[in-house]
């Protein structure tokens, strides 16, 4: 499809980094899975992809600031524009040879998300959106699913693991949602979860404890696909609070209601 000049810059950076990740993904599957060795290898793959993205974006748009998972904050001369980048979302999947990982790139202009991209190089699925221009997966226009009842829905959730999140609260939320829906999915990449909501593959999603680079691009892609995204209180502070709830209008509202419920008795 024909991209704008801005999106073309983002796509070229993502595809170049994606080729690097795809090569490394093929190698990591041949390594013995352990914390030593493959873990270091994945970190190298992550940093290499981030360096590619940083170099490409900085060359195309000199002066823009960056917020990156590995590099952190890079202040540029242009304070009005900021790239928000995750070079490898779904590191654990990558380490275990599961082809569910993604590059996430978003551009913020004067505090507003204006462009977003999520790319899974293992499946060559590229999700893009620009503010006011709609959302796409490769050449296909995206629209969130139209289901209006939780009982018909498949909902994504980033269930916390060792060293992450408040497990007790997560279990309360899971119990309150799981009894109302058709299925719960834990994909291992928040960026892809949000892209899947935009594509109608999942009807909704919630997670806590995320970083801005996990969700910035996905937020815009869902909005441009006709969906609703908020923080846990229904506001717009997702990048600040790390909590996110997404879906179409009805499912977003229903999820917010379920997540505010107290612990319930087992049934």
UniProtKB/TrEMBL annotation:
Q: Locate the residues binding Mg(2+).
A: 69, 86, 88-89, 214
Q: What class of enzyme is it?
A: hydrolase
Alphabetical list of Gene3D superfamilies matching this protein: 3.40.190.80, Fructose-1,6-Bisphosphatase, subunit A, domain 1 (3.30.540.10)
Which cofactors are named for this entry?
Answer: Mg(2+)
In alphabetical order, the GO MF annotations are: inositol monophosphate 1-phosphatase activity; metal ion binding
User: What does the record give as EC number?
Assistant: 3.1.3.25
**One GO-annotated biological process of the protein:** signal transduction
Q: What's its catalytic activity?
A: a myo-inositol phosphate + H2O = myo-inositol + phosphate
Q: Where are the transmembrane segments?
A: none
Keywords, sorted A to Z: Hydrolase, Magnesium, Metal-binding
Q: Its family?
A: Belongs to the inositol monophosphatase superfamily.
User: What's the protein here called?
Assistant: Inositol-1-monophosphatase
């Amino acid at each position: 499809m024909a991209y704008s000049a801005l999106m073309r810059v983002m796509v070229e950076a993502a595809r170049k980094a994606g080729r690097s990740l795809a090569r490394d993904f093929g190698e990591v599957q041949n390594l013995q899975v352990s914390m030593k060795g493959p873990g270091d290898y994945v970190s190298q793959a992550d940093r290499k992809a981030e360096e590619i993205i940083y170099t490409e974006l900085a060359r195309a748009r000199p002066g823009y600031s960056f917020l990156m998972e590995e590099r952190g904050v890079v202040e540029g001369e242009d304070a009005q524009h900021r790239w928000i980048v995750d070079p490898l979302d779904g590191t654990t999947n990558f380490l275990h040879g599961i082809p569910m990982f993604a590059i996430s790139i978003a551009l913020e202009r004067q505090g507003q998300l204006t462009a977003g991209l999520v790319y899974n190089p293992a499946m060559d699925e590229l999700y893009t959106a620009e503010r006011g221009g709609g959302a796409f997966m490769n050449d296909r226009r995206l629209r969130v699913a139209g289901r209006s009842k939780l009982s018909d829905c498949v909902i994504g959730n980033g269930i916390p693991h060792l060293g992450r999140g408040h497990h007790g609260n997560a279990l309360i939320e899971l119990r309150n949602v799981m009894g109302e829906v058709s299925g719960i999915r834990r994909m291992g990449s928040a960026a892809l979860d949000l892209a899947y909501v935009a594509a109608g593959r999942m009807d909704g999603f919630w997670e806590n404890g995320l970083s801005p680079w996990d969700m910035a691009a996905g937020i815009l892609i869902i909005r441009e696909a006709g969906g609703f995204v908020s923080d846990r209180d229904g506001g717009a502070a997702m990048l600040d609070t790390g909590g996110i709830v997404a879906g179409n209008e009805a499912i977003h509202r229903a999820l917010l209601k379920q997540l505010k419920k107290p612990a319930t008795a087992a049934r």
